[in-house]
């Protein structure tokens, strides 16, 4: 299901220590630098702390990254270990070519990480890393430490109402180090991370087994198709687009002329304090607002559709610090209230449980009143 949304799969390039053992820990710290830190946000299981590391081009020295240990900066206790097979995408030169924004040339490596702190445990005052490498030239292992930062616990995530209502919604691609969180693109001298905390969604039947019935190549077969989309907060419409054609179910049939076409029919709301809510892939001719309109939280503004770079009907939703899908920074947010119905992989369903001011982990089925 991680392939459900491809707003800019190519554009986002899919689209953010030291010394050897026995050396001083600060010897190569400048090769690992935290260049962006996100506000911590709660899910139903963790406080998640996201950030982006910039690293030197270690592969030019014959080094192969094997594992990243995220450490308590004070005690050096391992808080979270990321093995080679679980490492997020690392951005390096040369970047893939795309037809809209020629990629910049990079002289560093970039990777975005999340530290999940179990609920009830204190957030560490300081965080650092131990990077494990294999030297292909000497066939020896090497460990480096660095990339220290102080989590900013004064920041609080944005609290919004849900953009959808009803029951049995499956939320995917959020609260993870995978797509969308690790999506970055580098163009025009800028680093874009607009999708950083985006989610996609589907809707299950009451048995939580199927999200469509009938022909998967027809939009009407999907239980979520045509569902109302709601304003997540009071705000002003700063941009919208309607009239683009839709894909037919899972038949990825539409073509694109410009980068923004990947979003399909969309709405961008200014919800205040430099924060913008994005709704992508809306149903054709369903948008009920225009630029300049004021909306209230809970107003119906469009219908869920399958326009743009979409593999099946769903809502792609994100909040950013600028009204630009690409040249902006995605911001973490939480929902005012939801009821957790199930978690992916569970054979026996737990009793439904209500949460307030939280996000959920990936592959969580939730309902709204």
Overview of this protein structure:
This protein is mostly beta strands. It has strands spanning 32-37, 41-42, 46-55, 63-72, 78-83, 109-118, 127-135, 140-149, 158-160, 169-172, 185-187, 190-192, 199-203, 228-230, 235-241, 265-272, 275-282, 294-295, 300-303, 316-320, 333-343, 353-358, 364-367. The strands form 5 sheets. Strands 9, 10, 13, 15, 16, 17, 18, 20, 21, 22 and 23 form an 11-stranded mixed β-sheet that branches. Strands 1, 2, 3 and 6 form a 4-stranded antiparallel β-sheet that branches. A hairpin with a 4-residue loop joins β7 (127-135) and β8 (140-149). It is globular. The model is unreliable at 1-28 (pLDDT under 50).
SSE layout:
Layout: E1 32-37, E2 41-42, E3 46-55, E4 63-72, E5 78-83, E6 109-118, E7 127-135, E8 140-149, E9 158-160, E10 169-172, E11 185-187, E12 190-192, E13 199-203, E14 228-230, E15 235-241, E16 265-272, E17 275-282, E18 294-295, E19 300-303, E20 316-320, E21 333-343, E22 353-358, E23 364-367
Parallel strand pairs: 9-21
Antiparallel strand pairs: 1-3, 2-3, 3-6, 4-5, 4-7, 7-8, 10-13, 10-23, 11-12, 13-20, 14-19, 15-16, 15-18, 16-17, 17-20, 21-22, 21-23
CATH level-two architecture of the largest domain:
Distorted Sandwich
Low-confidence stretches: 1-28
Number of domains: 2
CATH superfamily membership of the largest domain: Glucose Permease (Domain IIA)
Question: Termini separation (Å)?
Answer: 26 Å
Q: On the 0-100 scale, what is the average pLDDT?
A: 91
Number of helices: 0
What is the top-level CATH class of the largest domain?
Answer: Mainly Beta
Structural class: mainly beta
Q: What does the main sheet amount to? A: 11 strands, mixed
Radius of gyration: 21 Å
Secondary structure: number of strands: 23
Strand content: 35-45%
CATH topology of the largest domain: Glucose Permease (Domain IIA)
Shape: globular
**Helix and strand string, N-terminal first?**
EEEEEEEEEEEEEEEEEEEEEEE
Assign a percent range to the helix content: under 10%
